Amino acid sequence: MKKQSVPLAEAYRLLEPGPVLLLTTADPRGGRPNVMTLSWHMMMEFEPPLVGVLVSGRDDSFAWLEANGECVLNIPTADLAPQVVACGNSHGRRRDKFRLTGLTPSPASRVGAPFIDECYASLECVVHDRGWVARYNLFVLEVVAAWAEPRKRPRTLHHRGWGEFAVAGSVLRLPSAMK
């Protein structure tokens, strides 16, 4: 089969970024939690575990992560797809995404941002390196505590762009505010 040209603005859809995450932060002025959907991340080191995350400078989560220097990376499973999309399609400044989605925040053990009870796993993180934040909005996080349910093979979501997700080889079509 002959390949066809892909618009460069859609090249990201060709790469598998790993499971979709729900990144939680806490408002530095009062501790109110926020949650955002995050697909752009990468493992950078094993010990200590370092994770690079790209967070848009337009998001409250960016400001709160920069101010507090900590967050939780929560790993949802496929059964949470509607909540994941709802978090990604709404803005925390205007609404409480936990109330909107029915997700349950719980205190983490080492950071001020909350776990999400319904997620398969949660990684408590502190900002390890801010060297790429100003140029790329890329935070390097150090995982300081990790928690997971003892399931062997969770069915995680993998964002493929424009409301399309892969789940264990299947594809889900979900609403997207991105047009």
Automatic annotation (TrEMBL):
The keyword rRNA processing does not apply. This is Flavin reductase (DIM6/NTAB) family NADH-FMN oxidoreductase RutF. The keyword Disulfide bond does not apply. InterPro entries: Flavin_Rdtase-like_dom (IPR002563), Flavoredoxin (IPR052174), Split_barrel_FMN-bd (IPR012349). It comes from the Bacteria. Its cofactor is FMN. It comes from Azospira oryzae. Residues 13-164 form the Flavin reductase like domain. Belongs to the flavoredoxin family. Keywords: Flavoprotein.
